[in-house]
């Protein structure tokens, strides 16, 4: 007796008679491997920029700049010195608000970065003053070529386009920022030196007793042994230098501006000790402050 075909199978159309499109639906874009050990979790399709109607991302510098432009501020920022913290009382609610006092000291535009020459738009801003004998010749030449006195701190602020390039030599005073607007601040956090895992990463440490000997604050095992690779995985949290790394605090409200003394008071805390350098720029996650376009107001 010949083997009988089940009813279900008999109903299916023969594959080689089907038009190509219906057979192709079964095949995903991931090639199915016919050799080796089959993985239980086969590689997924690329979930980035895949699908109909999505623009194809280009890897050219111009395309990268266009994508980046959405997240770049229109105006340059300023370099300030953290003077310390205090508190002011909100006149409406009577609430005490902790705030940070920042001071702008002889902040001037030193030079520009343009897309034609450097590949991006940025304003180089300097602050403070340094004795010319204490500056390298090359940096001194850079300052004198632009007609600027030597600056102690020099930083770049990226801007969206050419309209954000303030003229070289233009002073940036505290009233560059409006009361009520929001700023992002960048500064280095306080350095803590070489710190153990409990302080640096919040590990629990080991028991005080139960036979634990001299390793109460150490990390314990650093990884699996045979079977897990017999190695320490990349990114393993260990003891090391803590702090003194750049930290950005976003969306700080400007509470007070005093252009005569170069003071900008922002709500809340800014990373770093008193006297550290803080970079202030319009917050990218809040609406831009309502001011004239920078190049117009400068003229
Ligand atoms: C140069 O810098 C050093 C170290 O900061 C400082 O002690 C010295 O006074 C500076 N020299 C001048 C001429 O300002």
From TrEMBL:
It is found in: Mitochondrion. Keywords: Mitochondrion, Ribonucleoprotein, Ribosomal protein, Signal, Transit peptide. It comes from Monascus purpureus (Red mold). GO terms for molecular function: structural constituent of ribosome. Residues 1-24 form the signal peptide. This is Large ribosomal subunit protein uL3m. The keyword GTP-binding does not apply. Belongs to the universal ribosomal protein uL3 family. The keyword Ribosomal protein applies. InterPro entries: Ribosomal_uL3, Ribosomal_uL3_bac/org-type, Ribosomal_uL3_CS, Transl_B-barrel_sf. Pfam families: Ribosomal_L3 (PF00297). PANTHER family: 50S RIBOSOMAL PROTEIN L3, LARGE RIBOSOMAL SUBUNIT PROTEIN UL3M. GO terms for cellular component: mitochondrial large ribosomal subunit.
């Amino acid at each position: 007796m010949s083997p009988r075909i089940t009813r279900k199978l008999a109903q299916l159309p023969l594959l080689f008679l089907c038009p190509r499109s219906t057979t192709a639906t079964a095949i995903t874009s991931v090639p199915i491997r016919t050799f080796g050990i089959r993985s239980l979790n086969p590689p997924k399709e690329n979930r980035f920029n895949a699908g109909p109607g999505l623009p194809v991302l280009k890897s050219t510098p111009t395309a990268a700049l266009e994508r980046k432009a959405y997240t770049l501020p229109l105006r340059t920022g300023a370099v300030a010195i953290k003077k310390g913290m205090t508190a002011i009382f909100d006149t409406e609610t009577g609430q005490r608000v902790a705030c940070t006092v920042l001071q702008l000291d002889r902040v001037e535009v030193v030079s520009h970065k343009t897309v034609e020459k450097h590949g991006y738009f940025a304003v180089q801003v300097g602050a403070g003053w340094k004795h010319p004998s204490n500056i390298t010749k090359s940096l001194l030449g850079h300052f004198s070529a632009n007609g600027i006195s030597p600056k102690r701190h020099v930083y770049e602020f990226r801007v969206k386009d050419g309209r954000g390039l303030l003229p070289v030599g233009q002073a940036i005073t505290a009233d560059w920022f409006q009361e009520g607007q929001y700023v992002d601040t960048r500064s280095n956090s306080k350095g803590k030196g070489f710190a153990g895992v409990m302080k640096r990463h919040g590990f629990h440490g080991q028991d005080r007793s139960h036979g634990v000997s001299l390793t109460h604050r150490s990390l314990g095992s650093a990884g699996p042994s045979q079977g897990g690779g017999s190695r320490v995985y990349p990114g393993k949290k260990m003891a090391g230098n803590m702090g003194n790394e750049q930290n950005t605090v976003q969306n700080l409200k400007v509470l007070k501006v005093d252009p005569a003394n170069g003071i900008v008071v922002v709500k809340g805390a800014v990373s770093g000790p008193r006297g550290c350098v803080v970079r202030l720029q319009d917050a990218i996650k809040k609406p831009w402050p309502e001011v004239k376009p920078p190049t117009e107001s400068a003229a």
